[in-house]
Task: structure prediction
Amino acid sequence: MDWETVIGLEVHAQLATKSKIFSGASTAYGAAPNSQACAVDLGLPGVLPVLNREAVRMAVKFGLAIDAEIAPRSVFARKNYFYPDLPKGYQISQYELPVVGLGRIEIELEDGETKTIGITRAHLEEDAGKSLHEDFHGMSGIDLNRAGTPLLEIVSEPDMRSAKEAVAYLKKLHALVRYLEICDGNMQEGSFRCDANVSVRRKGTEKFGTRAEIKNINSFRFVERAINFEVERQIDILEGGGAVVQETRLFDPDKGETRSMRSKEEANDYRYFPDPDLLPLEIDSGFIEAVRGTLPELPDEKKHRFMTHYGLSAYDAGVLTASREMGDYYEAVVKACGGHAKLAANWVMGELSAALNKDNREITESPVSAEALGRMLARIEDNTISGKIAKDVFEAMWNGEGSADEVIEKKGLKQITDTGAIETIIDKVIADNPSQLEQYRAGKDKLFGFFVGQVMKATGGKANPAQVNDLLKRKLQ
Amino acid sequence: MHDKTIAELSAALARGEFSSVELTEHFLGRIESLDGGLNSFVTITGEQALAAAREADARRARGEAGPLTGVPMAHKDIFCTDGVRTTCGSKMLDNFIAPYDAGVVERFRAAGCPMLGKTNMDEFAMGSSNETSFHGPVKNPWDTGRVPGGSSGGSAAAVAARLTPSATGTDTGGSIRQPASLCGVTGMKPTYGRVSRWGMIAFASSLDQGGPMAASAEDCALLANVMCGFDGRDSTSIECADEDFTARLDEPLKGLRIGLPREFFGDGMAPGVAAAVDEAIGEYRKLGAEVKDVTLPNSGLSVPAYYVVAPAECSSNLARFDGVRYGYRCENPKDLMDLYTRSRGEGFGAEVKRRIMVGTYALSAGYFDAYYLKAQKVRRLIAEDFRKAFEDVDVIMGPTSPTTAFRLGEKTDDPVSMYLSDIYTIAVNLAGLPGMSIPAGFSDGLPVGLQLIGNYFEEARLLGVAHQYQLVTDWHQRIPGGFA
Result:
C-alpha cells in the first residue's frame, strides 16, 4: 500500500540580541553557571519584564523576509507549567496573537523543482534555563544563564512530504536567519533547534493521520534519520492494523530511534492567558519600514543574480548562495581574479570546499582568504601556472606557505611557455625513447600520452600542457 | 511629635525644633512600647532608621533637604527592601531577603525618609482582615478585639495608633481603602500605572497598585509626590510628567458635582455606616457641592469578576514560589513532585491556596472562556459605567466598606462574607481608577470611612476634595484611646 508522509516543523531560533528578551542580562554562551542570570531571570519576587526592542526588530526582519504580515498588535501570554529550570513557573510567549503571521519559503527539491512551504506563524518567547542531571550525586543542578534568552518560534504548515524536503526546508530557514543576522544558527549550542510533527496517510486521502511530535533533533542529519524512523514506525503500526497515538516522542541519536515521552493525556494544560505585566506589542508602519530598509539581499535574490550576472547554472548559484558567507567569499574571489566567474565557482565549490570539509572549518575560518584565492586564479588565467600546478600552489597556501606569487616563486612553479625550451626537452624525450617512437609511428596512437607524460615529468609539470600537445604532435609526425 | 501631620513635622524639622534622629527615636520608642498589643510591625529596623535619620539631618545641615527629608515612615511588607527581609506575610518568604529595593522604597529612600520597619499584612495581600498573615493578625487600635481590615492592616493600624506618621500600602481590591476605613485613617489608591510595581510582590498584576496611608489627605498628597512617577522597569507604568499632588488642595468646592451611586446605598450597609456617610455628604453640601444620583449598573458584577481575575493572575504569579531557588523548602523532599507539593502545601496558608485553586480552575482548558474572558468583558462594562457617570459628576462618593471593623475570627470561616467587605472598593480596581478613603465619623466608637472615587489621573482633585472636608472636620485627627 502507498503511504504519504506529512511533516510540519517547529523551529526555535535564538535571536542574536546582546541582552535577554525581558531583562538586561547578557545572552553570551558558555559563561559560568548562573553568572548571567539577573533578578528578573531568576524570577525573584516583585521583578517585572521589559521587552527588548531589538528582539522585536529581529522578529519583524524575519517576517518581512518570508513575506509575512507583521501584526500591528500582538500579545504576550503566559504558558504555565512547573519545572525547575522555569524560574517563574510560566514561560512568557505569544499564543493567540503572534507578531509574525502567515508567510512562505521556497525550497529546491532534488529534481531541481521548487516548492513553496507555508509558514503558519512566528512568535517571540523566552527560553528556559537548563537542568543538569550529571555530577550532582542524584540531585539536579539548575543553570539559568539561558533563561530569558529570546527565541523566535517558527511554525511551518504541514507542507513537507518527505524527510528530504524537511531537511531542505530546515537548511533554507537556517540560511535565511543567518543571512538576516538574527541568529547565529549554531545547532550544537542549541541556537537553532527543531521539533517535527510527523504523520502518515494513505496516498490520495485528504485527512491527516494522527501525528507524533518528535523533539530534540538538533542536526540536519538527525532530522532526516528521526523522520525516516518515525515514518517507518507509523507505517508498521498502521499496516499491522494498529493506530498511531498522538504523543510527544524523543529522538535518541545514539540508537537512531524515537521513543515515547508523554501521551496527549499526560500533556500539560498550560492555562495560557495574556501576561498582565506586559502591554500588547504595537508595531507601526514606520517601524516596519525602517526594518525593511535594513534587509540584506536574500538567498533567492542572490541566487538569481548569480545566474544572470555571473552566468552560473542554477545548481552552482544555489550552492554558492547557501550561506551569506559563502556568497560573499565567492564574489570576493571573482573580483580578485579579474571576473573569471566560472573558474572562481569551480574552485570555491571544488578545492576550497573539499579543504574546508577535510579540516572541518567554516568558510569564514578559511586560511586562504578570498582575495588570495582570487589572485592565484589570476595566475592560472595569465598562464603563469597550469590548473594542475595550481592545486599544489593552493595546498601550499592552505598550509600557510605564503601568497600564490610567493609559493610559485619559492618552489619554481612558474609555467614554461618558452617554445624553444619545450622543444629542446621534447627532442631529448624522443631521442631517449626510440622504440616507443617506432611503435607510435607504426600506428600505436595511444603512445602520444606516454610522450606527454615524459615531457611533463621532465619539466616538473611546469610546461604549458597545450603547448606541449601542439609541439609534440608536430615533432612525432 | 506623633500628633503632628507630615507637613507640620517637616516644618518643625526645618525650623530645627527637633532633629530627624529625635523624631525617629520617638516613633521607634512608640513602636516598642505600644505595638505589642497591635502586631502591626513584622520587622523593626531601628538601626537602619537611625542611620538614615542621621543622614537626613546631615543633608538638612547641607541645605539639601526636600519636603519629606527626615520624616520617618513604614513600608508594607510586600515592598522588597534591599538587605531587610520581605515576607509578604507568608511562611513561604519568612527567610527571604531581596537584593534590591522596590521602586517605591527607592523613591522614599532618595527623599530621605527613614524606614522604621515593615508592616504586617494578609498573606500575599489576600484577605480583608489581616487574619491570614503568617505573623498573626493585627489588632485594630480602636478595639483590639477587632480586625484592622486588610490587606494593608498593619500599615493602617500603625498610622491610626501614630506609631508612624505614614506607611505605604497596596490596593488590589480595596486593600488600602478598606483598612483605612476600619482604622480611621486616610488612604489613597492612585490610578493604575501611577506607582511603580517594580519590587512590589505581585498578587494580581493588572489590579495591584501601591499608595500612601497617613492621617490626612494633605499628608497623602505629600507622599504621593514622592511615590508616583514613571519607572521604566515596569511596563505598565504610565509615562507622564511628574505632578504636584498638593496643587489643588486649596481649591474651593463650590460647584463640585458629587455623584452618589444608588447601587452603593442599598441593603447590606450597616445603619451606623449609612448615617455617617449621609452626614459627610451633608457636610459637602454645606461646602457648596452639588449632589446627584448616578448609576453604576454593573457594579453588582464586580465581586464575582474580581474573584475570577485576581485568583487567575495570582495562580500564575505565585507559581515562582516552588521551593527551588529561594523561600520555604520542605524538609527532605523525596523527589521533584514531593518538593513542589510539600513546599507549597506547607509554605502557603489556606486563603492563598484557595485562591490559587480557584484561579487555576478559571484558566483551565474548557473553562477559560466562561470565566476569565467573561470576567474581562465585565471589567470593560464596569469601566464604561464609570466613564458615563463621570460625564455628569466630578467625584463619586459612598461608603468604603459596608460595616465598621468586625471581630477577630468573625468571618474567617465564611470567605464569601469576608469578600463582601470589599463590595464597594473592588469596582475601582477593575476600572483602574483612583480612589480614597477618609475618616467620616464613628459608629459605636468605631471609625467609618467615606470613599471618594475620581476619574483617571484626577488624584490631585480627589485629594483637594478630601482636604477641604478635613479642614472643617476633625475625624482624621482623632487618636484611639491608649495611643494618644
